[in-house]
Amino acid sequence: MSSVPFSFAGITLALAVSACASTTQTAAPPSESPHSRPSASGATSPPGEVSYAGASDRAVRAAVLDRDAFVRAVLEKNPSLDAARQGIRAAQARIHQAGAFEDPMVDVGIAPLSIGPSRAPFGFEVAVSQKLPWFGKRAFESEASEADAAAAKSDYESVKRELALSAVMLYDAYFVAARSLEINGEHVALMRAIHDNAIAQFGAGRGSTSDALMAETELTHMEHDSMLLATERDVTVAQMNELLHRAPELPLPPPPKELPLPRESEGERRDDTAQAIAQRPDIVAAEQRARAETARAEGAERQSYPDITLSTSYNTMWEMPQHRWMVGVGLNLPFQTGPRSGAADEARAMRSQLLSEAERMTDAARTGAFVARRQLEESKHVLELFERRLLPVARQAIDAARAGFITSQTQLTSVIEAERTLRRLELEYQMRRAEYVRRRAELDRALGRIPGLDWKEERP
Questions:
Q1: Beta sheet of 105-110, edge-to-edge order
Q2: Which long-range CB contacts under 8 A does 359-363 form with residues at least 24 apart?
Q3: Domains of the chain with bracketed CATH
Q4: Lesser CB count within 10 Å: N end or C end of the chain?
Q5: 418-436 pLDDT, tens digit each
């Protein structure tokens, strides 16, 4: 038996293994970026992202829970962000799959009757083939996958902003509940003093038992309000712990005595509204998915061109040695145009749908920014009214009513009414401050920024 066939077969198999190795190397993902940060579940954060590592531990161990510390803690611990990071990883992995060459094919055949004591020489055939897509097909697949990966990154940024907005609103509710408990406690102490004054007035013969009973009834209602406010606070803490991925019964540090109002930022200029809205992650994600569908439509049209298959083979069973080594080229015949045109039409329709959705979201964002800005101006004006007029007048009224009651010049009903008015205004003032913060957060969200954080952290 000649050694030439086996030598050629070894060379052919070596070329096939080399082709497989080169294809595998092309499809292998690159090493991780040195800027990527692993999450708790092993996912890597997008390169260049602002790090919130350790924010949760610092927030829950602090003496006072600040709003921005709570928002950063949520952005560190909430599982929704980790799920979005995994979505980015999956989309980036699809980039390495798209546009890759198919594995080369190796076909080996033997003549069974030539094995053994047969006088005929051992007969076999070895063939290697590689399919090569038409020019541009792989590029369109890669472009579509890259656009999908960019959209997944924008989805991650959008989830981050939605989480931050939820965190701000829960924090404001927590502050209002805690501050309302403190205000109600202060007024309970005030009502007890009024109750003692009513008893003293009755003992001095200048009052009646109805005054003491009226004060006792009002005090009972206020103590009941304290229970309701404590329940509201505990419910809010449980919801905040859910965002922090903690058990609902775990305690949180108390909020500060005063809710800090967000300062006006450089991003507050009205001229920047259109540019800020155009950079909103949800709008950008829709535009990137439209770009992916554009690439798919062009790729579907390119499917009308044939793919090329190059092959080489060696067959020992040809009598003439010159006929044993063969090379060839094959083409598929893309006569079935229905599936290809249908895929292109589907991709173009999806592109139009996504672009229309992006326009709708842009219109809604413009309206949301306008409404939030006007409401923010209204809240600012209301806070000024409370601070300059309503609260000072209510405090003067309660002082005057108490002084008049002590000197028997004012009825107890006037004192209780003045106390109710002051308590209602103090509680409403705290709610108005929280409303101002909420509307500012809604404006930040409408403009694509991260609510509750400094404007410089709006985009990594």
A1: 105-110, 124-132, 308-315, 325-331
A2: 361/280, 361/282, 361/283, 361/286, 362/277, 362/278, 362/283
A3: 4-26+65-454 (1.20.1600.10)
A4: N
A5: 888 888 888 888 889 889 9
